[in-house]
Specification:
The chain is mostly helical. It has nine helices and five strands; from the N terminus they run αβααββαααββααα. The strands form two sheets. A three-stranded antiparallel β-sheet has the order 1-3-2. Strands 4-5 form a two-stranded antiparallel sheet. Strand 2 and strand 3 form a beta hairpin.
């Protein structure tokens, strides 16, 4: 069962933070599957989460390159998959409480029909959201089964993760507080690029099978 504590996700995130996975270097899907002993589907979902968090971006041949903090965000990986788009839309609904904490999400077949995609695409999206801690399989104390939106405690944990990432970036780049705020403003401006805003759930995009 995918959770935010997935060892592969935790390990790779730490390696990207501390520079063990060096900026600009490429690792492949097959190589990571072999190294961690994880199935292809889970490995792809973990890499997709790190991709959405801005740690890595896709390159040809099934490779993933560690992001360089000095490289423009808007120049990286403009192509979105159906999995990216469905993940972004569901994430936006969770953030805006269209799916309130503790509420059962629609069945995968319903979401697949709504987004005009196959059920495996929805499975990928919901697995990525489980890794992010935004949905879980069981609601505590209830016998109902399915995917549930998480509550505030998990969101607080995500905020703490963000704070840790910001602190690590400041140390790595030698930023002062004032300079870092200006850099963040420039980065947020770069994130306003349409494809990037959609990926992060900040803007909707219609879905079609041939998108």
């Amino acid at each position: 069962m995918a959770t935010p504590d997935e060892p592969m996700l935790v390990t790779l995130r730490q390696e990207l933070r501390d520079g063990t996975w060096q900026a600009g270097s490429v690792r492949t899907l097959c190589g990571l599957m072999k190294y961690f002993g994880t199935p292809k589907f889970l490995t792809r979902c973990v890499l997709a989460v790190l991709h959405d968090e801005g740690f890595i971006y896709r390159v040809g041949g099934g490779g993933y390159r560690a992001s360089d903090p000095d490289s423009p965000v808007s120049a990286k990986d403009p192509v979105m998959t159906l999995g990216d788009r469905v993940t972004s839309e569901i994430r936006q609904r969770l953030f805006t409480h269209a799916y309130p904490p503790g509420r059962l999400l629609p069945r995968k077949s319903v979401l697949a029909s709504e987004f005009y995609v196959s059920e495996p695409v929805v499975t990928e999206a919901t697995t990525r959201l489980m890794l992010e801690g935004l949905v879980r399989h069981h609601r505590p104390g209830k016998e109902m089964h399915g995917l549930f939106a998480t509550g505030p405690a998990v969101h607080t944990a995500r905020d703490r993760l963000l704070s840790e990432d910001i602190h690590a970036v400041m140390l790595r780049g030698g930023w002062s507080g004032a300079d870092f705020r200006e850099a963040v403003e420039r980065a947020l401006h770069a994130l306003a690029v349409p494809h990037r805003a959609v990926r992060l759930g900040l803007a909707p995009l219609p879905l079609t099978e041939n998108a």
